[in-house]
Every structure is written in structure tokens, then in C-alpha cells.
Amino acid sequence: MPMRNILVVDDDDADQFICEYTIRKYDPSIETTAAFNGREALEILSRKTPDAIILDINMPIMNGFEFLDRYAADFDHHVPVVAMLTSSLLDQDRKRAAEYYFVRNYFEKPLTMEHLDLMRKVLEG
């Protein structure tokens, strides 16, 4: 499955910009959608299903783990690749993220071409 669209969930404007820039540089045909917290992401996901989600942990209103809990409980179908992109290097965060079968990657910020390659490889099987 090709990577055609990615939902980027991060409250920081600079991180949103870096993600969009890196994705455009990686493949200009990939569409990006921005959400600035988990609640916005859930609203977007109720209308459209991206091929991948890039998710921060520390956000206001609804953080990344609260989003994952709601996403797991409220959605029957899950996006093939959810990648955590965070500044948190805590083992407990990495282990908690791995508890969700649809979280396929855990990356340290900023987003890189190598991260996108790994996400694409998961999608392509």
C-alpha cells in the first residue's frame, strides 16, 4: 500500500512545519493533514482515514496516550501505521506505545527521511 496521506498530530507549530516540509521533500505527492491535539485528530479521523498518523505525546486538551486510548476504543478500523514522534526518550513511554498493536514506530524528533522510509516499509509489507 503506498503512503498517500498522513495525519500529523502535534501542538507545536514548528514541529508541524518540520513534518510537512520533510514529508513534501520526501514525496511531494503525499497529502498532509494537521491536528494540534488528540481531540482534533479524532474529529478528523471520523471524516477521513489517512494511511499513517504521526503522533506527539505531550499535547494540551488530549495528549498522545489519551488519543491512543480513545482511538483503540472508539474505532473498529485502525490506520495501518501510527508512528510516535516525540522528544520523550523515557522507556516507559516507549513501552506504553508498544502496547497498541497499530503503533508501529517510535521516533525521536525531528521527523527525518529515514523515519518516513521505515513507515513506508511497514505499509508496503
TrEMBL record:
From the UniProt annotation, give the residues forming the signal peptide: none
- What GO biological process terms are annotated to this protein in UniProt? phosphorelay signal transduction system
- Pfam families for this protein: Response_reg
InterPro entries in UniProt: Bact_response_regulator, CheY-like_superfamily, Sig_transdc_resp-reg_receiver
4-aspartylphosphate found at: D56
Q: Domain named Response regulatory: which ranges?
A: 5-124
Task: Write down the superkingdom of origin.
Answer: Bacteria
Q: Which UniProt keywords apply?
A: Phosphoprotein, Two-component regulatory system
Q: Which PANTHER family match?
A: PROTEIN PILG, STRESS RESPONSE REGULATOR PROTEIN 1
Q: Which protein are we looking at?
A: Response regulatory domain-containing protein
Organism field: Hoeflea olei
